[in-house]
Amino acid sequence: MSLHIKAKKGEIAENVLLPGDPLRAKWIAETYLENSFCYSEVRGMFGYTGSYKGKPVSVQATGMGIPSAMIYINELIREYEVKNLIRVGSAGSYQKEIELMDIVIAMSASTNSTINKDHFQMDDFAPTANFELFMKAVDHARNNDVNFKAGNILSSDTFYEDDPDTYKKWAKYGVLCVEMETSALYTIAAKFGVNALSILTISDSLITKEELSTEKRETKMGEMIELALECF
């Protein structure tokens, strides 16, 4: 039983979806999983296990930001032997052709966090998706007419930037969008030799300033969830 999840051994499946928002975790379990049960409510960071098309699947909220995500990802892998982790989150677009509700499949994750630099003594580590999960997502999206983009994203430690044009230095180099957890997910998965992928729905645009409502961020991202579930 881990410190922050406190599920019993065997209650968490080897396939786990990782939304940041606990209410999105609840919605996913109630909407997509059969016979689901809540295995954790610690700190309001809900975790559920059920089945999707006969396969056991868990959903664990991770909170916002790299430090919070690292806690839950570490415990899922080290204490519960999870093998496949897919982040399902929201992101802000950095490119004009990527619009609200579009899906981004993250091949890699740049970051302004110093956590990896601290660990690698200021060398750069390139956090990258698992190839097999990535190709499953791409193939399923193509075969089902899902509008998606794939490429490099940014995992940022800062939500509210002092300079509203900060995003442009990343956009210039083709970074597709910004979120706050994927770099940690890919790094920890690489450390422990498990599989990780991040699939994101665009919830706002740094270019047009459009944004989804809180309610839509919690419950209107079904296309992304279905795409992730089909990867298991």
Automatic annotation (TrEMBL):
Keyword Glycosyltransferase: yes
Gene name tied to this protein: deoD
Enzyme Commission number, as recorded: 2.4.2.3
Keywords for this protein: Glycosyltransferase, Transferase
Annotated catalysed reactions: uridine + phosphate = alpha-D-ribose 1-phosphate + uracil
UniProt-recorded Gene Ontology molecular function terms: purine-nucleoside phosphorylase activity
Claim: Transferase is one of the keywords in the record: yes
Sequence ranges assigned to domain Nucleoside phosphorylase in this UniProt record: 16-220
UniProt-listed PANTHER family: FI09636P-RELATED, URIDINE PHOSPHORYLASE
Protein name, entry field: Uridine phosphorylase
Annotated organism of origin: Christiangramia sediminicola
